[in-house]
Amino acid sequence: MPDDNKRTYDAIVIGSGASGGWAAKELCDKGLKTLILERGRNVEHVKDYPTASKAPWEFDHRGTVSIEQRKNLQGARNLREETLHWVLKDDEQPFIQEKPFRWVRGYHVGGKSLLWARQTQRWSDFDFEGPVRDGFAIDWPIRYKDMEEWYSYVEKFAGIAGNKDGLPELPDSEVMPAFETSCIENYFKESLQKNFPDRHLIPARCAHITDPQQIHIEQGRSKCQNQTMCNRGCIYGAYFSSNASTIPWALKTGNLTIRPHSVVHSIIYDDKKTKATGVRIIDGTTKEMIEFHANVIFVNASALNSNAILLNSTSNRFPNGLGNDSGLLGKFVSWHNYRGKANASFEGLRDKKTDGRSPSYSYVPRFRNVFKQEMDFLRGYAIGVAGGRGTFSNTDMIGDQLRENLLKPELGDWYISTWMMGECVPLEKNHVRLSKDLTDKYGIPQLIVSCEWSENDDKMVADYVEQVKLMFEKAGFINIKAEDTQSPPGSDIHEMGGVRMGHDPKTSLLNKWNQLHHCKNVFVTDGACMTSTGSQNPTLTFMAITARAANYAIEELKKGNL
Amino acid sequence: MNRRKALKNIAIVSGGLITLPQWIVSCGMSDTAIHQTSFSIAEQKILASITDTIIPAGNSIGALSVGVDKFLQKLIDDCYETDVQDNVKAQLKALEDSAKATNKKSFADCMQAQRQELLLNLSSSAKKEEKDFFDLVKSETIRGFNTSQKVMQEYLGYKVAPGHFYGSVDVNTSDHA
Fold first, then answer.
1. How far is Cα B114 from Cα B120, in angstroms, rounded to an integer?
2. Which end of chain A is more exposed for a tag (fewer CB within 10 A), N or C?
3. What is this model's ipTM?
4. Handedness of CA A433, A439, A441, A444 (dihedral sign)
């Protein structure tokens, strides 16, 4: 824990996940004394990955979580011994689901950058121009040309595996060699080329190092070893996380201080200076309120929590939350539609199998309504694809035959599974707000989440289910199952919006540099800033937006504008 | 590549920036640590014999040789609710009783064929508690066996860090080093 006698820094970053880590790195690189406030515990790269690289037999219960350990974790899903150390305790931050919502949080240094699926697809202007072309939400104040250099900038540092695919709807990234796709994915790709020429199956671009460059070696990171245990933390630093990459880099500059166990209460606004002057925290251990001061503040607490912090930052000037003259703070919250799932098997390719393990997947970029509006719903969906050849042991019996079957499993059929990644259209009614009477154990008002599916989402799922069936049938797959899982909003872990960017202060909270229109030294650059959602995994875009905004903030500070 | 070697490599490529945590260095962990169990000596003996009946060693390895009996004790003690634990113990006793009634011997002393028959009677039993017991011990015995170090490494070719993924290889190709 840093020395609390020092209360004033050049910059404060709230949150240490993928975007907060990038803000800290850029600010520290440019010489700003920066304080990261993280509400959870510290997690040091490698040292604090207690289950990394452990084999299945090294776990007491081979993965099952004991009843004792489950006690304060009733709200968590898919508990496993391997990842138990990341799970949020039930009493940490209760929230109110006005409608069903899954809110997955990563409250520790590194945040969800330790837990993400590491998929990094760029946006194109078919995404940035979506709202204005299709008449929903508001126009983005930025375009691909504003983002291109920043995508390249963060990709080179983070390390992205992928191909140069030359697709207009998914601009190429700065890449290292892609992971191989499996035999059945290659076969499916060929079938798509023949039967659906507008549907391109590519190896997903993912934040794994496959050919370490000097910049990665300087970070202390090395090549992916295909352990596929990524969500425990990686001892090789092979996938991008704040812990492996941006945070140690920022620490090396000598300009970064990290204060864990710092639950942000609100941002301090000074009516006389007409700007924000600092951040109030509740110490997670002592419950004491402490203030820290800085000239510039980056809000990267994860989308919904960033909304909560701004809503709770009230002052004479901003009685309804910081920068909230428009009354739109907390509104137009959106997410991704992951309701559609499908799988099938294939009896062909009997003479082939795979070898080793892949940490990534295949990806079919959005093909609906890309070049023009053509369906009875707005926007569309990308498809994640994974396929492999299973092994099979008959376990109907007990005794000697059972042992022989278990020790010599036979190669089974090929299987393939796909998941839908749909763009949700932001609607004003989907919102978050603070409870007037319920607080958490830190005395901070609980967040009310009020989000639901729309007819547009339902139509999109129906199209996905129908189209995947069709694509599987054309490929000759069998045992086809495609369904609408009816999972609640938030299951995608891609919640966005509430503090959206825009040209006009009357209809948006942030300008094109992610500054609050009405409080220019506060920047919001995590998912909360998103005007629309695209169908791509969003973290890469958050990181690029953050690096861009941080460098702008530094220029503005130099000019004395903040 | 084993983990120790993999770690040595990373320390070199990263210029020694990474400190090896104590748990990796001292990691000589056995399959299942010794723990205080709620199973009596007699119950432990029957449970061990059941795992040995489900997966006998034959000429190679079986449930007992990879410690599945100890794994089951710990798993049932720590991860199952009390009603399930109680049923397991009641069924162990019932199994012992029926072994004595049928074969005039303790379950553990019966021949493999006799033990197999006693267990299979439970698998097709109309009584829910008997069928549940059988399904639990069978599925967890298989899990314990299949996730043991010996089976995973020596029979199933498992590597913690394979270091590669080949999407399409001939089925006749032996596993890559």
1. 10
2. N
3. 0.93
4. positive
